[in-house]
Each structure stands twice: as C-alpha cells, then as structure tokens.
Design goal:
The chain folds into two domains: about 100 residues, 3-Layer(aba) Sandwich (Rossmann fold); about 120 residues, Rossmann fold. Helix content is about 35%, strand content about 15%. Helix 3 links the parallel strand 3 and strand 4. By secondary structure, the chain is of the alpha/beta class. The strands form two sheets. It has a four-stranded parallel β-sheet with strand order 2-1-3-4. The radius of gyration is 21 Å and the shape is globular.
C-alpha cells in the first residue's frame, strides 16, 4: 500500500527590503523646541497609527515660514529619501508652507507626498453648496503668498486670516527662543482668527487650518463658528487610509 501523500505546504514568506516595518507614513519635521501637545502633528500620540519622524536640521519655523525655506530643498529631499529608505511608503511634512516643495519632493522620492494641509482645499470646496467657499486660517498671512496657494491648487482669491496679531500662538511657534506655550491663549488666538475670517467673509462655508500645530484647537473653532473645520489631522488620516485600507472581509 502506498504511503499517504504529505499535506500541501502552506508557505508563509515574509518579504524584506526595509529597515523599519509597520509605519508606512514618514513625517518631515521642522527643527523647533516649543511644546507639541496632543493633536500637534509632531506629537506621536496624536496618531492612531505608527509614524516615522525625521527632523530636518536647520529648517527652523522662522526660516521656513518667514524666509520661504530658501536653500532648504536639498535638505528636505535628503530627509525624505532617508525616510523612504527606512520604510516609509508616503511622505508628509509638519509645515503647511512646504506646499512650495510639493512637486520637487514627490519627484525626488517616488512615493506619494502630501506636503501641506492646504492640499485639501479643492476637495473641501467641492463639498460645499453653491455660493459657499473655503476660508483659510494660517499662522502668518503675510508670509502666505500666492506661490504657496498655487502650489497646493488653492484659488488665489481664497479668504485668509493669520494669527500674527495674537498674543501667544504666532509668538511661540515662530520664535526659536520661546519654549513654553500657554495653551489657553493659543486657543484664543485661533478662535479670534476664525471669527474674524467668517465675519469678514460670510460666504465661507468651511475652514482649512494651514498650520500643523492647530489641530488641538480645531474642535473648539468648529463649535465657535458653527462650520466644518479641516486640518492636517483630517488630511493625513485620509492619506493614511489609502496606504492601509481597512479590511472588511
């Protein structure tokens, strides 16, 4: 009698090629020392999924926001490539003003790149009823020139209000010397900017927060103005969902 045939092998092959696994999103960070409270893009506890961080040395908030990140593109490209080499399958950044580098970074790293919260403005606009449009709250209106809007596909006539006139938010985020943050005052700065925006532009039907440090205050702003508020958290949650779609079956 012939011996029974062995059961077919159920091979389980683990595929290699990366240094780090389970964190498909890489985040390029500015070099700063202010507090990154929960909700801030640079706080690891903000994200419901693992992420990879990489600080771009020399890319201070002042240099990126106020000086247009001049001369820093090679450093951002090198840092993004390093994240991809480690295992990142997509790249984002923690400053909305880096929309200026969107095309160059995507071309250099060869994976999906979402540099700025501003990239979601066209999508949000598409959700609004006729006669309504998106407004933007930014850390620095004076610095947000048409070049940044154009790079993100944002209409150049989009209403924009900044936090330069506030008491805490702009001062702490842009000044390298300030390392403490009065969270209550920072929230008031965001609320005042949002209220100013909708008061001056009643046609605004939704707000996009440019700054990646603003998500901690998004819920309070939405409640204060009675409008949808989108930020880097909402955009990157959507971005990541494409990298790791939910399994239903």
């Amino acid at each position: 009698m012939n011996a029974p045939s062995p059961a077919p092998s159920l091979a389980r092959i683990a595929r290699g090629g990366k240094s780090i696994y389970g964190a498909p999103l890489g985040i390029l960070m500015l070099e700063a020392r202010f507090p990154r409270i929960p909700g801030d893009m640079g706080n690891g506890e903000t994200w419901p999924f693992p992420v990879l961080f990489r600080v771009v040395r020399g890319a201070t908030p002042e240099r990126v926001v106020l000086a247009g990140a001049r001369g820093l593109l090679p450093e951002f490209i090198a840092a993004a490539q390093d994240l991809v080499d480690l295992g990142a399958e997509a790249i984002t950044t923690n400053c909305g003003f880096l929309s200026l580098f969107q095309r160059e970074l995507a071309q250099a790293v060869g994976v999906p790149v979402a540099t700025s919260s501003l990239l979601q403005v066209p999508w949000v606009q598409a959700t609004l009823p006729p006669g309504k449009r998106v407004g933007v709250v930014t850390v620095s209106k004076g610095s947000l020139t048409p070049a940044y809007l154009e790079a993100a596909g944002v209409p150049l006539d989009t209403p924009v209000v900044g936090t330069e006139g506030g008491r805490e938010f702009f001062r702490v985020l842009i000044s390298a010397a300030k390392t403490d943050l009065d969270v209550g005052l920072a929230e008031q700065d965001i609320l005042e900017a949002g209220r100013t925006l909708v008061a001056a532009h009643p046609e605004v039907g939704a707000i996009v927060l440019e700054c990646t440090n603003m998500p901690p205050y998004a819920a309070a702003l939405a409640e204060a103005v009675g409008l949808p508020v989108y930020d880097i958290y909402s955009m990157i949650s959507y971005f990541h969902a494409g990298l790791r779609p939910r399994r239903f079956v």
